[in-house]
Amino acid sequence: MAAFEWTDALAVGVDAIDGDHKILIDQINMLSDAIESGIDDTLVASVINVLIDYTVYHFDRERQMMATTNFADSVRHLKEHDIMVAKVQAMQSAYTRGNGDLDEMFKFLKVWLTQHIMKSDQAFAAHIKATGGAKLVPPPEARGAVDWRNLSVLVVDDQFNFRSLMRNILNTFGVTQIQEARDGMEAFERLGTTPADVILVDDEMQPCDGLSFTRMVRGTKSPSPKAVVILMPSREITREYVKEATEAGVHDLMIKPLAPKTVRARIEHHLTNPVPFRMVDDRLIPVRRAPAPAAQAARPGMV
């Protein structure tokens, strides 16, 4: 399957829009890589989730710019957006049911985005530049109690595609201080020189998996801040595994496939509702609070 390459012909000359388009192309290529390499369904599903969420985020940014600059062709342009999102969501639903065609999705996304950029977005960009609207481009989402721009996040995963996926997810919140590590030992060494506020660590890595890494971070000999928030994407969320992860020092598990809204909600929850720690076997362990049933239902991914 031919890769979707960014070229100068796709540049519209508005940095924020071009940046969004590059991220969307990266996600489309990640989908292609997952299809060709036969990587498990959780990565494919996560990529599709991020692709849809980031597309909606990008379209909303353009909608705000159209309203601010009084773009005359906004109704037709936004209708194109709506049709595209509905089409991809229908493909996602078909894939979830087991009868989706990922090759068809890749081809559709590549053709649609290319044609949309070359025609509709070029015209919109010309309007933006003519009206000085480029100065009014909304920044990445930064509302809420968390100061996303000053948040330092460490992503630990042995798969490059998952690290790229998490980076793109974090970018949509406005996070720019992102470190990466390929396994627990590399991450632990990195924390010795560059502390993090939040760690997103995979559970299945070699030679040092997520739980082993977490135990080292929570240990009394750890050079890193022991109260750092540690979240773990996982395929498995059983009562036994939750107990094991909690005893290792993990704040929360997030079930794969990941969705940006879940990742954001988990980070925001733990940064704005810090839990106490207790010492167990020379390790600091976060004390989990049992939420009320209604609150628990409102927070996807919470265990």
Question: What's the mean pLDDT score?
Answer: 84
| Separation, N- and C-terminal Cα atoms | 39 Å
Domain count, please report it.
2
Q: Number of helical runs?
A: 10
Account of the 3D structure:
The chain has 303 residues and is α/β, with parallel strands linked by helices. The protein folds into two domains: 129 residues, Four Helix Bundle (Hemerythrin (Met), subunit A); 150 residues, Rossmann fold, CATH 3.40.50. It contains ten helices and seven strands. Strands 2-1-3-4-5 form a five-stranded parallel β-sheet, sandwiched between helices. A two-stranded antiparallel sheet has the order 6-7. Strand 6 and strand 7 form a beta hairpin. It starts with 14 loop residues before the first helix and ends in a 6-residue tail after the last helix.
Task: Write a brief structural summary.
The chain is an alpha/beta fold and 303 residues long. The protein has helices at residues 15-37, 41-69, 74-97, 102-131, 160-173, 184-191, 210-218, 239-248, 260-272, 293-297; strands spanning 152-156, 177-181, 198-201, 229-234, 252-255, 277-280, 283-286.
How do the helices and strands line up, and which of them pair or pack?
Layout: H1 15-37, H2 41-69, H3 74-97, H4 102-131, E1 152-156, H5 160-173, E2 177-181, H6 184-191, E3 198-201, H7 210-218, E4 229-234, H8 239-248, E5 252-255, H9 260-272, E6 277-280, E7 283-286, H10 293-297
Parallel strand pairs: 1-2, 1-3, 3-4, 4-5
Antiparallel strand pairs: 6-7
Helix pairs in contact: 1-2, 1-4, 2-3, 2-5, 3-4, 6-7
